[in-house]
Amino acid sequence: MFMFTAIWIMLAVAVAVLVIVRRRIAGQEDDALHIADSEQDLVARQREHLEILGRFDRWTFGLTLTIIGYSLLLIGRYIYIAWHQGQSFMW
């Protein structure tokens, strides 16, 4: 059971790292909307930031769903093992 918990912890740490890195990248983003022809380089930079943040969002969302599913499996396994051993739960 320890191995499964260690895997869950590694997934949770990965999500936490993704969230921290995404927050740092988003903090460097220029919040002003650039639409003038003279600001095309700024528009391109904003587009790059958007693509990078989109990738971080997809990975974070996917890993979060994986952690939720894995958590449900761990809880189910724990309940199954406890039920088979005849232990009573202290809610």
Question: What's the topology here?
Answer:
Blueprint: H1 2-27, H2 40-85
Helix pairs in contact: 1-2
Describe it.
The longest helix has 46 residues, at 40-85. The protein has 2 helices and no strands. The chain has a domain at 40-78. The radius of gyration is 21 Å and the shape is rod-shaped. The protein has 91 residues and is an all-alpha fold.
Please trace the helix and strand order, writing H or E for each element: HH
Largest sheet composition: none
Beta-sheet strand percentage?
under 5%
Q: Tell me the distance between the termini.
A: 21 Å
Helix content: over 70%
**Protein structure class:** mainly alpha
| Overall pLDDT metric | 87
The total of beta strands comes to: 0
Indicate the low-confidence ranges by residue numbers: none
Report the radius of gyration as a whole number of Å: 21 Å
Helix count? 2
Which outline best applies? Answer: rod-shaped
